[in-house]
């Protein structure tokens, strides 16, 4: 029984198995101490800087492990009792809720997907006169507006259908894909078929007009709102467009059963070429992924969404991740939390009486959506969603917490919010590049959690933010570990203790136990073993490309060489790409310098492994001795080759691409034959050109278009092989 005799509306429980996790963390810490002692005690006379580099990389990994332990030390999980809500509050006591759905480009985010999302939130089990849904269209597309107009009509059928059948999920696209036709009730089956046909007809109309690329004239005559696009010069140059498609205050805004409909609004914020519009954050201030494959070929946010945010909650409150979140209006308005404010909020009553017609309010609100509205105001700085960051969501959440507001994490058994994840490798890497750069930007700015959040955020919560703030710096230690041990294997330099040595035990223990725990954790959260393998692959791909480019780009921005750019990841793919995604075949998409880095590292480790195997066979009797000395490096090389299997498949075996690089580059300088010419590699790379042949692999043609790094590696390997001979 809670306060005032009421039953509680929710309960909070600590995660199970904390004793095992803390024992595991303590044992890993002991293993790390032994590793550090070995690095300091057995300092080599030669090649000392390579040894120092390994030690520094391992110190970094240890520090990052310490941060992850803090995040996962005390996760809490919450469950609600929604049936008790009606006994606690009358309908009129419930607050008004505004829901924002954001879209940016109808080519990357199909309008059918967007309106299915809109319809799902309109169908919430909540008083419709207290529910308003806003579609913020950053692309200012009349195609998106047309789709929303179609959805406003279909909502009159869909909402009563959801109430009658208690539809879950309330997204029509997801519902009809996963729910079979009811066979027990002939009447309901007939209605089910009618609603499904109505949805498919609407979907076909939207898709056909989207494929045309413009709204036909006869369709434009159906609503006066299309007249607004007569003044649109481009998606980046247009006035504010605000259209109230359903006015929840209008007594005539009802469904086929005579029940009120929630308010539905379309908004495209004004854009002018000379004025920065602050991307999604600017649009929001003016106003879980459901396409994952079984084994999540491009990784997922499973651990982040299901465990790390629960850990944040135990440390003081989860961060804001941009979606699936409910804010109190007062917290976004820049108010500082206090006991006095809490009393005022409890005493507040929701008043739905708003004076003025829909057309009057449209014109009145357009001024609020102008591109200069926030100039010389606190918006974007002290109020609303924060600007000056590529991850405006994280910065906004941190700002709210720094003002004393407390956030909580609630992850219901059935996912409350579903979205669309990237379907190609490049889209995934670009997305994480933006996230990594934005997190690093926060860390190196005045918004650093140790400064910005110091008054009201506990230290453990400030440290928790570092698990994401340090994504980009992770690239340097990872690149060192991926490249240097394999390179030293060529040169006969051992960087780890012998397998037979007692000092090898802590290395083996930390590596094995850490990975086993990661696997158990992933499967416990609902993943598969193969999904975990894909997660490890993407972990390395992101650290060696996305976060590397994020770190480089941010350094360039700090020195004034470039500016922030918001990259939209695709949510739609052509038939061939979609088919390969469903078959869990990695899609490399168009060329990117990120692929050059991936392919270079993959080839380097593959050739290194071949060299080791060849040398091992030639020596014969000394095989075990070599493995004893270089066992850890050989094991690392094997693991890296296994992780890069999709890269090799794309380079040598895939038939869904068009070109391949010739194995012998034509050069204008003499071939490298000895160590004395080792330093000429860079010069020669600049004078190298490739001969192209029409054959198979798109990925390798990417390498040819960005040859500098690859040619250096190619010549290094060629020289090293000659020296080994």
From TrEMBL:
The active site is at residues 138, 393. The keyword Coiled coil does not apply. It comes from the Eukaryota. It is found in: Endomembrane system. Gene3D superfamilies: Spore Coat Polysaccharide Biosynthesis Protein SpsA, Chain A (3.90.550.10). One of its GO terms (cellular component) is endomembrane system. This is Glycosyltransferase 2-like domain-containing protein. It comes from Gossypium barbadense (Sea Island cotton).
């Amino acid at each position: 029984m809670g306060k005032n005799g009421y039953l509680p509306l929710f309960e909070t429980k600590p995660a199970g198995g904390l004793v095992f996790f803390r024992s595991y963390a303590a044992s890993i810490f002991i293993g790390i101490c032994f590793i550090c002692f070995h690095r300091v005690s057995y300092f080599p006379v030669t090649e000392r800087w390579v040894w120092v580099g390994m030690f520094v990389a391992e110190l970094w990994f240890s520090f990052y492990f310490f941060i992850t332990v803090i995040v996962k030390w005390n996760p809490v999980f919450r469950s609600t009792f929604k049936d008790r809500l009606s006994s606690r509050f009358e309908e009129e006591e419930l607050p008004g809720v505004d829901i924002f759905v954001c879209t940016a480009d109808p080519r990357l985010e199909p309008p059918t997907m967007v309106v299915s999302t809109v319809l799902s939130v309109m169908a919430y089990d909540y008083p419709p006169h207290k529910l308003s849904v806003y579609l913020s269209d950053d692309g200012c597309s009349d195609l998106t507006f047309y789709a929303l107009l179609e959805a406003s009509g279909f909502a009159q059928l869909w909402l009563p259908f959801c109430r009658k059948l208690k539809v879950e999920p309330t997204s029509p696209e997801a519902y009809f894909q996963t729910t079979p036709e009811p066979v027990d009730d002939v009447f309901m089956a007939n209605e089910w078929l009618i609603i499904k046909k109505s949805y498919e007809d609407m979907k076909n109309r939207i898709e056909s007009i989207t494929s045309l690329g413009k709204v036909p004239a006869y369709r434009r005559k159906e609503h006066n709102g299309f007249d607004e696009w007569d003044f649109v010069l481009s998606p980046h140059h247009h006035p504010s467009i605000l259209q109230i498609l359903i006015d929840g205050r209008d007594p005539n805004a009802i469904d086929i059963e005579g029940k009120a409909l929630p308010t539905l609004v379309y908004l495209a914020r004004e854009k002018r070429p000379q004025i920065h519009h602050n991307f999604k954050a600017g649009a929001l201030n003016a106003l879980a992924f459901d396409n994952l494959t079984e084994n999540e070929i491009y990784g997922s946010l499973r651990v982040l969404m299901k465990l790390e945010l629960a850990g944040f909650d135990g440390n003081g409150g989860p961060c804001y991740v941009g979606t699936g979140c409910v804010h109190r209006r007062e917290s976004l308005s820049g108010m500082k939390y206090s006991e006095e404010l809490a009393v005022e909020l409890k005493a507040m009553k929701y008043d739905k009486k708003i004076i003025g017609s829909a057309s009057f309010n449209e014109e009145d609100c357009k001024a609020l959506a102008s591109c200069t509205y926030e100039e010389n105001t606190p918006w974007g700085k002290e109020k609303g969603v924060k600007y000056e960051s590529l991850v405006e969501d994280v910065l906004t959440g941190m700002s709210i917490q720094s003002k004393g507001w407390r956030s909580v994490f609630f992850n219901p058994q059935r996912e409350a919010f579903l979205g669309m994840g990237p379907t190609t490798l490049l889209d995934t890497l670009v997305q994480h590049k933006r996230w990594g750069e934005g997190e690093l930007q926060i860390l190196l700015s005045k918004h650093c959690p140790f400064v910005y959040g110091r008054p009201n955020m506990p230290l453990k919560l400030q440290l928790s933010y570092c698990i994401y703030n340090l994504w980009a710096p992770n690239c340097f230690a990872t690149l060192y570990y991926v490249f240097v041990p394999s390179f030293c294997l060529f040169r006969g330099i051992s960087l780890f203790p012998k397998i037979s040595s007692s000092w090898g035990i802590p290395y083996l223990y930390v590596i094995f136990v850490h990975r086993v725990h990661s696997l158990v954790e992933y499967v416990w959260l609902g993943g598969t073993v193969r999904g975990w393998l894909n997660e490890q692959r993407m972990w390395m791909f992101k650290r060696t490309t996305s976060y590397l480019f994020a770190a480089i780009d941010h350094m360039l921005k700090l020195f004034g060489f470039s500016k922030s750019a918001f990259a939209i990841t695709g949510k739609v793919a052509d038939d061939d790409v979609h088919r390969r995604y469903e078959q869990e075949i990695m899609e490399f998409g168009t060329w990117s310098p990120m692929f050059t880095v991936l392919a270079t590292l993959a080839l380097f480790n593959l050739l290194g492994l071949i060299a080791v195997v060849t040398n091992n066979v030639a020596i014969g009797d000394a095989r075990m001795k070599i493995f004893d000395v270089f066992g850890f490096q050989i094991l690392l090389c094997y693991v890296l080759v296994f992780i890069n299997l999709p890269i090799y498949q794309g380079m040598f075996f895939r038939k869904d691409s068009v070109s391949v690089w010739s194995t012998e580059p034509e050069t204008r300088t003499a071939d490298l034959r000895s160590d004395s010419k080792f330093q000429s590699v860079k010069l020669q790379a600049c004078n190298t050109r490739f001969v192209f042949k029409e054959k198979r692999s798109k990925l390798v043609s990417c390498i040819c278009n960005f040859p500098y790094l690859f040619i250096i590696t190619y010549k290094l390997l060629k020289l090293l092989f000659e020296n080994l001979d």
